Amino acid sequence: VQLQASGGGLVQAGGSLRLSCAASGRYIGNTRMAWFRQAPGKERELVAARKWNGDTTYYTDVVKGRFTASRDNAKNTLFLQMNSLKPEDTAVYYCAADHKTFYDLTAIAAAGPPWFGMDYWGKGTLVTVSS
Fold this sequence. Notes:
- This protein is 5% helix and 47% strand.
- The chain is mainly beta.
- A hairpin with a 5-residue loop joins strand 5 and strand 6.
- 31% of the residues are buried.
- The model has no long low-confidence stretch (mean pLDDT 94).
């Protein structure tokens, strides 16, 4: 699985951005996908996880209610719509994938940074939220 994240940029607090994660490879439909972020000087952290072709995305409490994931099957792309952005959302955002079948965020996070047990990573995209 090859992944490419894009869509980062500079936005004012309260604004919105939509990140994209373009995927290619075999068996994408059964792939577990996750978004992570790494703020300057901090460890990478989990943001959200879902099955590529599933209907449910699991969000961490920090972003729940503000971030929404969606997908475009025709383009093999996942999106992360980020609303009500805060300066503390400033980070490099990554999408990652593997073929594991559990989506419990605590279990994923327990695998620990930097790779959280995920097999495939895209290059990150920088999101900067100004105050």
